[in-house]
Specification:
The complex is a heterodimer. Chain A is mainly α. Helices cover 68% and strands 0% of the residues of chain A. Chain A starts with 6 loop residues before the first helix and ends in a 27-residue tail after the last helix. The two termini of chain B are 50 Å apart. Among the domains of chain B are: 102-151; 183-347, dinb family like domain (Four Helix Bundle (Hemerythrin (Met), subunit A)), CATH 1.20.120.450; 353-465, Nonspecific Lipid-transfer Protein, Chain A (2-Layer Sandwich). The relative contact order of chain B is 0.08. In chain B, helix 7 (187-201) packs parallel to helix 12 (320-342). Chain B is elongated. The chains are: A mainly alpha, B alpha+beta. At the A-B interface, helix 2, helix 3, helix 4, helix 5 and helix 6 of A face helix 3, helix 5, helix 6, helix 7 and helix 11 of B.
Chain lengths: 203, 470
């Protein structure tokens, strides 16, 4: 639930936040907190750090509701980008801090970047799975987690075998875009200078 | 939306990248992945062993009459390999009837997802893997999809700390104060509805239909009704609807609402009747949650006087402020019923909110005692007390989170409870007290410590239990 908010909901939420409605902030949290928190936890692998990212991301949105541009995509995708960037920023900071602390023992910059890339990919993959059309997700769940073959998957879903194969392939194709790093996350050209640390950073 | 650049990977509306491969422009036309590119390509191993519970293997392919195109050809089992002549050149070259020709490229390509997930038959797996040594395009995609499988993992149980919500919201409001704040007295309702909603978000269809036993205390004895998780949410929505209509909002029951004024029980029955029409049980979550959000939003816009706005609640009226506190209490109690039914852990309200809930019950007790006395369910007053004058008092000591001391006037709702006139003292834990007030604990078994007048103690415990209702 909550994945298919129409663009109208997004714009309305933005207006309410801009107007300073505390009730809207609560609704925003209810809709996106688990998204933000799980993304942050996937990247940072730590509950406390994810709590902190959640505070930072919602704080940023509440202070800068106008920096969301509905033309660039859904509010959900924007929130996910913010969470992602902020988490990666923290991960990089942590890498730099450990380099300072541990000197020669610390993982090199290349190693840190590799970790960041892996964590980013995993986080994007999570997002893609939760955001993909429900029929594709259902097919993947049956075939992967319940180890049904595609014929059984087709029967379970009440679709043709042809359709089951199509869904499995399309679902994995979508998921494989998690590896596309170059375009991620896209930086809107007109992005206003961020106030919170890290939001303006590119991956 | 579909700009070719800067595609947004975080936007589910743009699957983008993947091509379905069915289109006419697909690069894998006949011969395009020809043998010329196959040299030196590593054979791609299967990602995992195939599922062991495959259905019966397909029979050997029947000789297909050229030009006869069947639906079976579309479903493209390995068995249907040599059906349509129009798909490929090279693949139809196997006239040898003893060895079936490999399935055409189009079919093998459609199997790549299932192959990467090890979700096809052994024959199909072998056919795909043979094909991958010959077809560069399919081999590329196979690698990509197999890597994608590695990104799948079981979803983490998303147990967000319920306390995080208030911390995050407070942090936000510290950075930028709200121009339209939410009144502080809505906080318990806000917190409890959010907590229940988070519990619901993890539930599957079967859990929505899980049986739930609703228990309360009526007069002198416990009562119960059986419903489902969905029924509980419908119940919460129907009774919250009393608050909504008091605010001038629409009735969530719509045309199903009982005619004329109706209390919680009638409204719940009406709601369950409407739900019996067999709508998807999930369907109650959205309206319930939307209404609770709308209630909070509406009171935040309504100005100060709304706190005292009377809400008719069956046979009693509560001011809006107490009414939402009562709804918060009910929300917690029923969330507990749901959690128990589906075997999830569930946290009680934070201490500050628990304290308010105990306080509401303590404030309601003198009037409830009077009502029970009129009904012959409690001992008559020893003597009449002038309104506002101190009278005989029960000292209610609530221990644990949210606890405190309350002095309950025993003689009449108008009398003043005071420590000097204490004739009885009971002590119990805050959660235990709330369970008693919810009708989940028999009054006879509720107390940890007591001394003083036995009649007074009995009357107060039974009155507390009778605060509960369906």
């Amino acid at each position: 639930m909550g994945h298919d908010a129409p663009p109208r909901w997004d714009r309305r939420m933005q207006q309410r936040l801009a107007r300073g409605e505390a009730a809207a902030l609560g609704e925003l949290y209810d809709r996106f907190a688990s998204l933000v928190h799980s993304l942050a936890r996937r990247v940072l692998g730590d509950e406390t750090a994810a709590d902190r990212i959640t505070r930072e991301v919602f704080g940023y949105i509440w202070e800068n509701p106008d920096s969301y541009d509905p033309k660039q995509g859904s509010l959900r995708s924007w929130v996910a980008q913010l969470a992602h960037r902020q988490s990666v920023h923290r991960l990089r900071q942590a890498g730099a801090a450990s380099a300072l602390d541990r000197g020669a023992d610390a993982p090199g910059p290349a190693e840190t970047e590799r970790q960041i890339r892996e964590a980013s990919t995993a986080a994007r993959a999570d997002y893609i799975v939760t955001s993909m059309p429900a029929p594709l997700r259902a097919a993947l769940e049956l075939a992967y987690f319940q180890r049904r073959d595609y014929r059984q998957t087709a029967a379970d879903l009440g679709v043709t075998e042809d359709e089951a194969r199509r869904r499995l392939r399309l679902g994995l194709q979508l998921l494989s875009t998690a590896h596309n790093h170059r375009t991620l996350p896209p930086a809107p050209p007109a992005e206003p200078p961020p106030r919170g640390p890290g939001y303006g950073r590119q991956l | 939306m579909n700009g070719s650049e800067g595609r947004d990977p975080y936007d589910p509306r743009e699957p983008g990248g993947p091509r379905d491969g069915q289109g006419p422009g697909g690069p894998q036309g006949p011969g395009s992945g020809g043998p010329s590119r196959s040299g030196g390509r590593p054979r791609i191993p299967s990602p995992r062993t195939a599922a062991e519970d495959n259905g019966p293997l397909p029979d050997a392919p029947p000789p297909a009459a050229p030009g006869v195109r069947t639906d079976a050809a579309e479903t493209a089992d390995a068995a249907d390999a040599d059906a349509p002549a129009d798909t490929t050149g090279p693949d139809t070259t196997g006239p040898d009837a003893a060895t079936p020709a490999p399935p055409p490229h189009r079919v093998l390509k459609s199997l790549l997802g299932a192959w990467a997930l090890a979700a096809c038959s052994a024959e199909e797996t072998a056919a795909v893997e043979t094909h991958l040594t010959d077809c560069a395009a399919c081999a590329d995609e196979a690698l990509r999809l197999r890597d994608a499988v590695g990104l799948l993992h079981p979803a983490d149980p998303l147990d967000l700390d319920p306390l995080l919500r208030s911390r995050v919201l407070e942090g936000c409001l510290g950075r930028r104060p709200a121009r339209i704040p939410v009144p502080g007295w809505t906080a318990p309702y806000d917190a409890e509805t959010a907590k229940l909603d988070a519990l619901l978000s993890d539930m599957g269809e079967a859990e929505w239909r899980a049986p739930v036993r609703l228990r309360w205390f009526e007069g002198e004895r416990p009562a119960e009704r059986r419903t489902t998780v969905a029924g509980v949410i419908g119940h919460l929505m129907a009774v919250d609807g009393l608050v909504a209509t008091a605010l001038g909002l629409g009735d969530p029951l719509g045309a199903a609402a009982p005619h004329g004024p109706a209390g919680p029980t009638d409204r719940t029955e009406a709601c369950w009747q409407a739900m019996a029409d067999g709508r998807s049980p999930h369907a109650t979550r959205g309206p319930w949650r939307d209404q609770s959000h709308t209630l909070i939003r509406t009171v935040s816009f309504a100005g100060r006087g709304v706190a005292e706005l009377p809400v008719p609640y069956g046979d009693v009226r509560l001011p809006m402020r107490d009414s939402l506190l009562d709804r918060a209490f009910e929300c917690w109690v029923h969330a507990g019923d749901i959690a128990e039914a589906v075997d999830y852990p569930y946290e009680p309200p934070v201490a500050g909110h628990l304290h308010q809930m105990v306080d509401l019950a303590a404030r309601l007790l003198p009037a409830v005692l009077a009502g029970r006395r009129r009904a012959g369910l409690a001992t008559p007053p020893r003597r009449l007390v002038e309104a506002g004058a101190p009278g005989r008092t029960l000292h209610l000591e609530v221990e644990g989170a949210g606890g405190g001391h309350w002095y309950i006037a025993l003689d009449s709702p108008g009398a003043l409870g005071t420590p000097d006139r204490t004739v009885a003292h009971i002590a119990l834990d805050s959660i235990e007290f709330c369970q008693l007030a919810a009708g989940h604990v028999p009054p006879q078994e509720a107390v940890a410590g007591q001394h003083g007048e036995q009649d007074a103690i009995r009357d107060v415990l039974f009155a507390t239990a009778s605060l509960s209702r369906l």
